[in-house]
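Wed. Picked up where I left off yesterday with Pyridoxal phosphate homeostasis protein. The coffee machine is broken again, so keeping this brief.
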Amino acid sequence: MPSIAANLAQIEQGLRKETRLVAVTKTKPTTLLMEAYEAGARVFGENKVQEMVSKHEELPKDIEWHMIGHLQTNKVKYMAPFVGLVHSVDSFRLLKEIDKEAKKNDRVIDCLLQIYIAREETKFGLSEDEALEIISSPDLAALGHVRIVGLMGMASNTDDQSIVRNEFRGLKATFESFKAHENQQVIMRELSMGMSGDYLIAQEEGGTLVRVGSAIFGSR
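Structure written out below (tokens, as returned):
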């Protein structure tokens, strides 16, 4: 089995300079995270808040922590002091909660709106119209401690690469169209799409963040 360092090097070598790697560390012990850290990984993505909080306490403080899983409003307060980017904002209510907790910590937290692009009902996310409603809402201006910096999407779980590519291409088109609505709080600079099985397609279609776990850590 190739080492974590070798896997990271291979993935990084295949990425455009415009695309950053988020190492998905969910369920992995901190010993493996330290291997990835020592190999140069600095952006870690977690699905569960409690797991992210405990790992943040144990690991070096120059790690940038991203919340990539479905986020419940009652868990926001635990990660608000340190989270670097929330990929999975799927309601205005959640955005308001992030703003409230960010304010308590005297921070501005960057967020991505999660867009539903898959052909599966198991995935979370906003429709394009719902997301547009959020970024053009006059109520957004009252949330001074959050910033919407882009979009996130999860493609269908299928071996048909044409379906995946079309879903990513559609998300990129939405991302570009939302640039017309930019202001101080809405800056479309990050497009989070692609995981271990489809990150190369995602970067070809304009992804700026790819979320890769198993291709780094394997079955460790």
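Quick read: The chain has nine helices and eight strands.
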